[in-house]
Amino acid sequence: MGDQKLSQVKRGEVPYLRRMMGMVFQDFRLIQKMTVYENVAFAMHVVGASSREIRRRVPYILGLVNLQGKADCHPRELSGGEQQRVGLARALINSPRLIIADEPTGNIDPALSFEIVDLFSEINKRGTTILMVTHEHSLVKHFGHRVVEIHNGSVVADSCNWEARHE
């Protein structure tokens, strides 16, 4: 990542490289027995963050994704959009340089989809690269950033001017 060539990363360095990334999944991948706070804090526990740092950072990140009032809720008590924002908070918690979002709006309604994309846009403005995979053309147009189009496993277009090609 950055100026590092990924083809030259040694196998033992991969776990450290992963710490620079956050993942957002279509199916949320939340731990049902954990609260919102615990789901987000878990990502910090995995990388060895101190309890003090976790107590400081988790409420801040929950505020960024507008879930500060849901910290004690379990995933089953949340809407699909709220669950996706928990997933986004978990992806953000360790200040990644890259977030990979695999169909992050596939299981939420269209209005919430735009809200999630707007959150990604704000995160991107703060310096985090967002790699989002989606089939939803309206979201791609709304996002308005570089688009790489892939069909049958091959790159067929790489352009910032996606809207002009699909009107």
Keywords:
7 helices; three-stranded parallel beta sheet; 5 strands; alpha/beta; two-stranded antiparallel ribbon; 167 residues; globular; 42% helix
Structure description:
This protein starts with 13 loop residues before the first helix and ends with a helix. It is globular and about 45 Å long. 42% of the residues lie in helices and 16% in strands. Helix 2 runs parallel beside helix 4. The protein has 167 residues and is of the alpha/beta class.
The pLDDT mean sits at: 88
Judging from the principal axes of the Cα atoms, what is the shape?
globular
Straight-line distance between termini: 34 Å
Would you list the SSEs in sequence order as H and E?
A: HEHHHEHEHEEH
Short description:
By secondary structure, the protein is an alpha/beta fold.
